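FW: tagging you since you asked about this chain on Friday. Here's the raw sequence from the shared folder, copied in full. Didn't touch anything.
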Amino acid sequence: MSKLVAFKPNVGTVTVATEPGSILQFDHEVYYSKGDYIFTGLDGKQHIIPDSNIDDYIEVEIKKKKIDKNAMANAYANMENWLSETEEDNTYINGTRDLAELKKK
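HL: got it, structure written out here
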């Protein structure tokens, strides 16, 4: 099954130039005029958007995941319990090994 999808690989901001200027695009300078659309990707790379393509840029919202601080605190508390149990296991195992070695002598 296939479906028609739109793929927009770049996320960034579009700014309308308030005065003429230039941007560095790849290895050369590109000049723009007042009123031109300038796209700046999250990686900092820029390019000028032709007026005919501005409708291809769809407004999006980046949602940040909420961090559940209580769940994180509980995870750390459980990890502390697990570590202390592991230390007890290591003490038992090492003690048993030491006893076995003493019996060999």
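FW: The radius of gyration is 30 Å.
HL: agreed, and The beta strands are 12-16, 21-25, 28-32, 37-41, 46-49.
FW: great, closing this out.
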